[in-house]
């Protein structure tokens, strides 16, 4: 089964993370597929907007913990390459979030232009609880987006939060009607395709220009410390215990 489904229609490229058995946890293959699909959409003149969503009623449970136990590749990890590509997109990106969004399934939203959420969506940034540090430039972007106090609460305490709080804080851009998040995200994407593409891309560039250097610095700074965390014996032992508990019964997602 393809781990990423890609549909191009009406100038909208819809990317569906397709690992429903593990609540769309992102393994290295899925990260690579996402990076290639985003790059292809960026270079395709027939695509005006990208929609990112998950299969099976969930957005993404974050990175697949099995990959955290593998030797890390030299240079950027597959997840880091994906995040850099997402941050570099000049075309609007709309996220349709339902079910669970955890870890990188939340931090990647900071690089999307619109985040449409289902009223029952649930969010968590569990890095500290796992013995890890933030990634995806979230240590820089999250306080700017939602405020320092809320960022402290979500990151330092790893406290779950709901769709209403995501909207009130500014992480989400709109709250969909119950069960209609995909339809409303695609309607928004179609609306955007009806606007002049050059003006859309230029305006997006202007909105993000001041933060470009800081985001790249945060990517590198976080990745350095994230790698150090992964080399910690106690962190790896925690992953192993968690995966053993989940074996044959639950997806390899971060704990709630």
TrEMBL record:
What the entry lists under SUPFAM superfamilies is as follows:
ClpP/crotonase
Location of the protein in the cell: Peroxisome
Keywords (A to Z) from UniProt: Isomerase, Peroxisome
Main localization category: other
A molecular function annotated in GO for this UniProt entry is: delta(3)-delta(2)-enoyl-CoA isomerase activity
Q: Which InterPro entries match?
A: ClpP/crotonase-like_dom_sf (IPR029045), ECH/Chromodomain_protein (IPR051053), Enoyl-CoA_hydra/iso (IPR001753)
Signal peptide, first to last residue: none
Q: Which PANTHER family match?
A: ENOYL-COA DELTA ISOMERASE 2 (PTHR43684:SF1), PTHR43684
Name recorded for this polypeptide: Enoyl-CoA hydratase
Protein species of origin: Azoarcus taiwanensis
Its taxonomic path starts at: Bacteria, Pseudomonadati, Pseudomonadota, Betaproteobacteria, Rhodocyclales
């Amino acid at each position: 089964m393809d781990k990423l489904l890609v549909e191009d229609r009406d100038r909208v490229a819809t990317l569906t993370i397709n690992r429903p058995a593990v609540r769309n946890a992102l393994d290295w293959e899925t990260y690579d597929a996402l990076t290639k699909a985003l790059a292809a959409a960026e270079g395709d003149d027939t695509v005006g907007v990208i929609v990112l969503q998950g299969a099976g009623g969930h957005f993404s449970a974050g990175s697949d913990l099995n990959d955290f136990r593998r030797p890390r590749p030299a240079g950027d990890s597959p997840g880091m390459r994906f995040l850099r590509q997402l941050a570099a997109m000049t075309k609007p990106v709309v996220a349709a979030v339902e079910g669970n969004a955890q870890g990188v399934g939340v931090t990647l939203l900071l690089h999307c232009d619109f985040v449409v959420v289902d009223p029952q969506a649930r969010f968590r940034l569990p890095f500290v609880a796992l013995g890890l540090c933030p990634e995806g430039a979230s240590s820089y972007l999250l306080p700017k987006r939602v405020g320092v106090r809320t960022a402290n609460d979500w990151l330092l305490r790893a406290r779950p939060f709901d769709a209403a709080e995501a909207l009130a804080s500014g992480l989400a851009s709109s709250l969909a009607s119950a069960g209609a998040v995909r339809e409303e995200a695609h309607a928004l994407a179609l609306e955007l395709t009806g606007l002049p593409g050059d003006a859309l891309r230029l305006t997006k560039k202007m909105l993000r220009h001041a933060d470009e250097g800081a985001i790249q610095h945060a990517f590198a700074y976080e990745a350095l410390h994230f790698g150090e965390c992964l080399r910690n014996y106690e962190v790896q032992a925690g992953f192993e215990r968690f995966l053993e508990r989940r074996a044959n019964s639950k997806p390899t997602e971060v704990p709630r």
